[in-house]
Specification:
Layout lengths: L8 H10 L2 H10 L3 H8 L2 E2 L5 E5 L2 E5 L6 E3 L8 H13 L9 E2 L11 H7 L1 H7 L3 H11 L3 E2 L5 E8 L2 E8 L8 E7 L8 H19 L1
Antiparallel strand pairs: 1-2, 2-3, 3-4, 5-9, 6-7, 7-8, 8-9
Length: 214
């Protein structure tokens, strides 16, 4: 289940900015033909006209009538925060093929301004709170089904939405340099989510890995 990261002023600001976009995203989605939505986002549509996708290993159903998001397993509506991320993804998706070319947060559109803050509550947080260093990192990532990424001393790729893949990379420190970790994004990620939203996804991934490693 998706766990929210520890709150920071920057994350809270992004949470507040994401919450009101639910209705705006729904208005955008109502104007899209279902087939185009499926093609552009990589979601699936069932015979009843509802859409299905997986978000952080949890399956969700999005009503084709009013674009209400529900958990597939229970039928319960998730938080407005989770709904806003899923609906923003669907409304933003333009069908661009994911590139497998990795960039840092600062290379995302308007990412430079918040890059230091993002690193503080993502990669730096991971190194600081991870018990057992790189072996714990590997264990946490592999528990979540991460696929090997040939960057750093250990790196993994995660599919958090159908066409949003995040990389998580760890460099093991020594006597001279401390260990480091970083969340990476495909350079096509902005075709599927705002930079604000991508920051939240990155922080959630770190939280999931920490939980799995423990």
């Amino acid at each position: 289940m998706l766990q929210q990261a520890k709150p920071t002023p920057q994350l809270q600001q992004w949470h507040d900015r994401l919450a009101p976009v639910v209705e705006e995203a729904r208005a955008t989605l109502r104007r899209l033909k279902p087939g185009k939505l499926v093609l552009q986002s990589g979601c699936e549509q069932d015979e009843d006209g509802n859409f299905h996708l997986t978000f952080f290993w949890q399956e969700y159903v999005i009503s084709g009538d009013d674009f209400t998001v529900r958990r597939a397993e229970t039928g319960a509506e998730p938080s407005s925060f989770t709904q806003s991320l899923i609906l923003t993804y669907l409304a933003t998706a333009d069908g661009t093929t994911p590139s497998s070319r990795w960039v840092s947060f600062r290379e995302l559109p308007a990412g430079l301004f918040y890059a230091q803050a993002f690193q503080g509550y993502s990669g730096n947080l991971l190194v600081r709170e991870l018990p057992g260093g790189i072996e714990s990192f590997r264990r946490g990532c592999e528990t979540l089904g991460g696929e090997a990424l040939g960057i750093g001393d250990a790196g993994y790729v995660f599919t958090v939405l159908p066409r949003i893949h995040l990389g998580l990379v760890y460099w093991e420190g020594d006597e001279e340099f401390p260990s480091q970790a970083q969340v990476l994004f495909e350079d096509t990620a902005a075709h599927y989510m705002s930079t604000d939203g991508l920051a939240v996804l990155g922080s959630q991934l770190v939280g999931q890995v920490l939980k799995a490693a423990r």
